[in-house]
From TrEMBL:
Gene3D superfamilies according to UniProt: Chloramphenicol acetyltransferase-like domain
Domain of life, per lineage: Eukaryota
Family: Belongs to the plant acyltransferase family.
Name by which UniProt lists this protein: Uncharacterized protein
One protein family per Pfam: Transferase
């Protein structure tokens, strides 16, 4: 259990030694290894992390220099405007807690993974088009479906979508009893790399995502046509701007 003791908090299984190899230099050129990493958005987003690992891989393969020159300059690119200027109340409303918010501790979240077939998504998106006359992305469509159904089933669902191959929805679930007149929010992250003026440079590897949300009363969410919920999510994207 040498490797397990070195690298893991709970080296309780024999197979952990095989999951955490410690190859010498002679082994590195003869095998392919998969690297998993957890990185906080305070440092960088997925795009930036990918650029960093690609750069390390290029150097490991013997490149004299990396193909995309890294850019940090976070303070200059995304720092406060001078003079400071606040437009709208999006951030304040998102971070604020409504009076009378129930602070009851609900316990540990449960993680589930749902596999959603492409044909199911396509059929649902066509139904939304028939109801509204507008088209919607997969994120907007599934987001509306999940958001409303979490009210029906009295669960809070935090969505994450992976669009490579079969659609996967990773959801954190916890019990939540919400009164009909309470405002409920659908929160997500949106990439602002091309929204800021000027756009962030290609080599910028810091965090390029900001929190965004759509909100409506729990009663409206339950009773309005589901295409209106998808439209609400679609419109909320417009709140991300320079």
């Amino acid at each position: 259990k040498i490797y397990g003791d070195m690298y893991l908090d709970d080296p309780g299984s024999d197979f952990l030694d095989r999951l955490v190899p410690d190859p010498g230099p002679e082994q590195a050129g003869q095998a392919v290894f998969t690297l998993g990493a957890a990185i906080h958005h305070a440092l960088c987003a997925g795009t930036g992390a990918t650029q960093f690992f690609n750069a390390v891989a290029e150097l490991a393969r013997g490149a004299g220099r990396i193909s995309i020159e890294p850019v940090w300059d976070r303070a200059g690119l995304l720092g406060p405007r001078d003079p400071p200027r606040v437009e709208g109340g999006v951030v304040r409303e998102y971070l604020g807690l409504e009076k009378g918010l129930n602070r009851t501790v609900v316990g540990e979240a449960v993680i589930e993974c749902f596999h959603v077939k492409d044909e199911w998504v396509d059929r649902f998106k066509k139904m939304l088009v028939q109801g509204s006359g507008s088209s919607y992305t997969t994120f907007e469509a599934l987001g509306a479906f999940i958001w409303r159904n979490k009210q029906i089933n009295c669960y809070v669902i935090i969505p994450y979508f992976s669009f490579n191959g079969p659609y996967q929805l990773h959801a954190g679930l916890k019990p939540s009893r919400v009164p009909g007149d309470e405002m409920v929010k659908f929160a997500y992250s949106i990439n602002i790399r091309k929204l800021v003026k000027p756009p962030l440079p290609t080599g910028y590897w810091g965090n390029g995502c900001v929190p965004m949300y759509a909100q409506v009363s729990a009663k409206e969410l339950m009773e309005q046509p589901i295409w209106k919920t998808a439209q609400l999510i679609k419109q909320s994207k417009g709140n991300a701007r320079d």
